[in-house]
Amino acid sequence: MIDFTPLFRSTVGFDRLSDLLDDAMRYEPADNYPPYNIEKTGEDAYRITMAVAGFAPEDISITAQPNLLVVAGRKPGRDHVQYLHHGLAMRAFERRFELADYVQVKGANLENGLLSVELARELPEMMKPRTIQIGGASQPTTIEAQPSGSQKAA
To answer: Regarding beta strands 60-65 and 45-51, do their DSSP bridges make them parallel or antiparallel, or are they unpaired?
Structure first.
């Protein structure tokens, strides 16, 4: 077991980081069905693409929760079929994706057997970088918002 105590001595408000590291240490290999890709499509934009051939939009559910995306699929009425050869998986599945803070699901599309889920990270104004002016005894301290994408040293 790895001791992360030195890391936590220099952090404030990262209790969730501790939980994520603990979860990662207890990782159990999961089923690899269906296969998927995670792409970075922009500075704060991402796409998850899953191979779900044979599933219709009504067979798939996408649920977004705080810091979690759950994609599940189920083909109804396949239990009574007698296969001579069963090579196409099309079995029920559930995939869970841990999302970083402020990552939102923007939309989903199913085309040619590929399910694409668009994600974007949107920081609230209060979380964006800002400049802190240091005042003296006779000058009050002021805080100014910085334009997005630029950072100045205070």
So the answer is: unpaired
CB-CB neighbours of 114 under 10 Å:
15
Residue 6's φ and ψ, nearest 5 degrees, are -60, -35
Percent of the chain with pLDDT over 70: 68
Q: Where are the domains of the chain?
A: 32-121, 123-154
Q: What is the pLDDT of residues 84-99, one digit of tens each?
A: 887 877 789 999 998 9
- The sheet with strand 114-121 has its strands ordered as 36-42, 45-51, 114-121, 103-111
Of 101, 120, 108, residue with least CA distance to 62: 108
Judged by phi (left if over 0) then psi (alpha if -120 to 50, else beta), residue 77 lies in left
Q: Which CATH architecture has domain 32-121?
A: Sandwich (2.60)
Write down the pTM of the prediction: 0.64
Residue 50 near residue 71, CB atoms below 8 Å: yes
CB 73 within 8 A of CB 55: yes
Per-position DSSP letters for 111-135, written without gaps between them? ETTEEEEEEEE---GGGS-EEEPPP
